[in-house]
Amino acid sequence: MDKRSIIHMFDPSPHTSPFDINFAVDAEFDVIVPYSNVKLEQINALVQDVIFSRSPAGVRKTGIFIGGRDMGVAMGMLEQAREAMVPPFQVSVLADPSGAFTTAAALVACVERELKTRHGGNLKGSRAIVFGGTGPVGIATGVIASLEGAEVSLVDHLTIDTALEAATDYNNLCGANMRGTYASSDADKARLVSNADIVFCCAKAGIQVLNASVLGDAKELKVAGDVNAVPPLGLEGLKRHDFGRELEYASASNGAVGIGALAIGDVKYKLQHVLLDALVEENETPLFMDFRDAFSKARELV
To answer: Which residues of the chain have pLDDT under 50?
Structure first.
């Protein structure tokens, strides 16, 4: 009898995300097993229960998903899972806390495409501002862009201390080179966007980050991406399905364009399915996938 596919979903939060469970269902795993309140020190035992309870044929049909909301915790769990494997009983693992890795990968890949096709540029050397930069998606976005050579500023909406701490922590963890700053007013935002090549809007749903007045100061802006699909959207004048549409309020003379949340979401949706499918593909060695793998695949998809 053919072995059924199983995905074990480890989540340090009190509840496993319905968002992640729905994706696992749509990826057509036969069995979906969610775990909540998982601690880092429990990963070794959980992983070894997973790998030693199935035959080699069963192991090949088994995957592990790591969720939660904290990028650092998820990456720690991913590394613990890697260390717990005992050949030939090994399974592939995907970390995507709060969907941040796949969302950020899709966002940066979409922005990169428009930067290349519309402006003949690339991420390296571009000045990038990440609003909502201290949340899961914002941090992952900043890390990916920084590792590709962009000059990244993570923006917190309240204090510079929070932004500096996030930049320092994830520079150390991921080898990035980000700076932290804050913007508590439209004047602060206007100052930041005045010489930005790229704007990433990763703030909470339903928050307008940049209004028409602030966008009017974005004189060097080339591409802006917004992941907020809940009104009011993050950038005034940008629509959810826009992909490369000229931003009507930006004053940049070189044709600044925007990418809306549903255009980015379409790439994110396809990307997460590709990565979930990879968990139970016939791989010679197990995969341990994080934001780097997500971005590599997102580039292919766009």
So the answer is: none
Tell me how far apart the alpha carbons of residues 111 and 109 are, in angstroms, rounded to a whole number.
5
Both structure tokens of 58: 């069963």
Closest of 47, 101, 84, 108 to residue 275, by C-alpha: 101
CATH number, residue 56? 3.40.50.10280
Q: Which domain holds residue 155?
A: 102-264
Sheet holding 198-201, edge to edge: 178-182, 151-156, 127-131, 198-201, 223-226, 257-259, 243-246
Whether the CA torsion 275, 279, 280, 283 is positive or negative: it is: positive
Q: How many domains does the chain have?
A: 2
- Give the pLDDT score at 254: 67
Q: What is the CA radius of gyration of the chain?
A: 20
Give Cα 104 distance to the centre of its chain: 3
CB 249 within 8 A of CB 236: yes
Give the type of residue at 285.
T
Question: Is residue 3 helix, strand or coil?
Answer: coil
pLDDT number for residue 249: 86
What pLDDT was estimated at residue 1?
Answer: 58
The count of other CB atoms within 10 Å of the CB of residue 158 is 11
Q: What is the per-residue pLDDT for 97?
A: 97
The CATH number covering residue 194 comes to 3.40.50.720
How do strand 223-226 and strand 257-259 relate by DSSP bridges? parallel
The confidence score (pLDDT) of residue 170 equals 98
H or E element at residue 172: helix 160-174
Which whole-number Å values give the CA distances from 178 to 102, 106, 163, 197, 200, in the listed order?
Answer: 20, 20, 10, 16, 14
pTM (whole model) above 0.85: yes
